[in-house]
């Protein structure tokens, strides 16, 4: 596992820091808004009280109201001051340093003096509102102690909430980071084991997040890699098996010619050359198939009527030339069946299928058919031979997929694999079906759109 300074842990800490910053900003904004709302509510309450008292025009009535209000709140929470216009008469429990109009925040000892201090500690400040009333200047105020207390409660609540939230986010982020690190270490361990030669190792992640999805893709890739390695091993074995016999025969003939050159005949030389040609043809087929399967063969696509292509194939195999009697028949409708493809490659695919049908079926009818069906061009070559069992058809299409396990019959086992590769190059498929009796090879291609 990586050290704690890994990218996962750094990312988790960065996320936690971002959360903390966002939470601090949100908490600060919330605290400011709530504090401002409390202040505005107190200012509004004080203004309403002052305006209500200002409706009294008789100084005597105003005096009685002031005395009653002050007596009701002897703790200094409420301050009232009235001063006549000429300054000769004053009422209330405070003395303001200066007159003002409207709302203002006053500090005890600086902006005003309490005339009747409360028994407990005097408030530090007041929210006051002043206006003209009853022939003089009237000021009403309330202390800001409850706002200060509420702000402290808000601050403590916000601080505790942010602290707990930050702690939980850091713990959760660290837990996720360490968990991801263990999962990444597991992936790395599997890849190291595969690189060291253990191709059976898999991650086998059971989660459903992005890392699990990547793990599933890695497992699928490793499955394909293991299958490819197994195929390469099989190909190597098959190539060695197929070439061992002709190379051994060639060596024996050449040793015979070398030991007794006077008795060497043209027949032996011709056979030797034939063996060399067989080996060369095998390697040429392997190279050709590899290029087809890797899509490195240039495809010269052009509109092509498959009916015409079938007629050309019949002309090539008439007569069959294999010492037996086969009848090649073409089944096609009157309408063209056009595809966009490479004529030479598709011709080679059909030749391979027909040659395969002639070699693996007794004398009789071999049918070449083409039809358009649901936007697809269906090419088929059907014979009346022994056919291929359903469980062996997939192997028959593989490279060197010969069903003769002794590999004593002629051929390289590359014909059907080459046809499948050509079909894939043309965005199509090759499938083998039961012809009851016999085998039906079908090339499924997309129809051309003009």
Distance between the termini: 59 Å
Provide the spatial order of strands within the biggest beta sheet.
2-1-7-6-4
Which CATH architecture of the largest domain is right?
2-Layer Sandwich
**Strands, total number:** 14
- What Rg, in angstroms, do the CA atoms define? 49 Å
Shape: rod-shaped
Estimate percent helicity: 40-55%
The H/E string reads: HHEEEEEEEHHHEHEEHEEHHEE
CATH class assignment of the largest domain = Alpha Beta
Number of helices: 9
Q: Please summarize the sheet with the most strands.
A: 5 strands, antiparallel
How much of the polypeptide forms β-strand, as a percent range? 15-25%
Structural category = alpha+beta
How would you describe what is shown here?
- This protein is an alpha+beta fold and 450 residues long.
- It folds into three domains: 1-201, Beta-Lactamase (2-Layer Sandwich); 210-293, Helix Hairpins (Orthogonal Bundle); 302-446, Histidine kinase-like ATPase, C-terminal domain (Heat Shock Protein 90), CATH 3.30.565.
- Helices cover 52% and strands 19% of the residues.
- It is built from nine helices and 14 strands.
- The protein has helices at 7-54, 59-72, 145-195, 210-259, 266-293, 306-316, 343-359, 393-397, 415-425, and strands at residues 78-84, 90-92, 94-96, 102-107, 112-114, 125-133, 136-143, 302-305, 326-332, 338-341, 364-373, 376-382, 429-434, 439-446.
- The chain has a five-stranded antiparallel sheet.
- Helix 5 (266-293) packs parallel to helix 9.
- The model is unreliable at 1-5 and 405-409 (pLDDT under 50).
